[in-house]
Amino acid sequence: MIDAHHHLWDPARRDYPWLAGLDPIRRPYTVDDLRRVSAADATVLVQTVSSARETQELVDTAAASGGLIAGVVGWADLAAPDIADRLAAPRHRELLVGLRHQVENEPDAGWLLRPDVLRGLSAVTGAGLAYDLLVNPAQYASAAELADRLPDARLVLDHAGKPPIATGELDDWAGAITEIARRPNVFCKLSGFVTEADRTWWRVRDLAPYADHVLAVFGPERVMFGSDWPVCELAATYGEVVDAARTLTRRAVGTRAARDLRGHRAPGVPPAARLAPTRPGARQSDHRSAG
User: Fold this and answer.
1) I want to staple 285 with a disulfide (CB 3.0 to 4.6 A). Which of 91, 145, 150, 195 is the partner?
2) pTM (2 decimals)?
3) What is the pLDDT of residue 291?
């Protein structure tokens, strides 16, 4: 099994504003904790704050993980004039496989299309890195346009754009995701669904219409599984997320994929991770979270 999206953090080391009010997960989560809950063959560790220092710490953590953490999606200031140099700077640079910014928290719906951001994203592409899109519904159109403007960029839609599972609304989200999926350079993480659903009473059947739609419009070759652990613990254990993903996978793409939960040869994941095409139906978070 490949887990293409999880986090680690330690509130004693730095401030995580998005953890305010989330006491059940406001504690350190380490690689040892990950090993206790996950049977993944390899994982991708994703940033939680806009901090180059955190990114270096995550890359160092991956380097010391004995191969469990196969890559890191970090953060860098896309507007920095020396962005290309910054992308080459981290120790263990080979483990940095992508970048992300909490675009969903930006008030500007067109943030991704700002000239300085576009220049930075061109540098990301030139460095051979993927870029994770953590966006809100007002930013879906900009995400699609970004894919058109930078056709060589490898873009990954985090958490399937955070569908409104808790309300049961489908049509508006589905239409927007269909439009984004028309861009062949955009991939999708089926992750974070349990925290977008009713966190107390969610059932796999609540997640199914959204997972089915993602798998239908992106196709198996452009979808990857992510646990969104430990954010998922607000609604489910790591094992419950994996079980739900296997059930949703079996519904959509068959028993073998459900058994393997292979993360897909995702953009930004090194060949050492041995990612084979997959399909998960996992989960996500509805608050302004690490994502």
Assistant:
1) 195
2) 0.90
3) 72
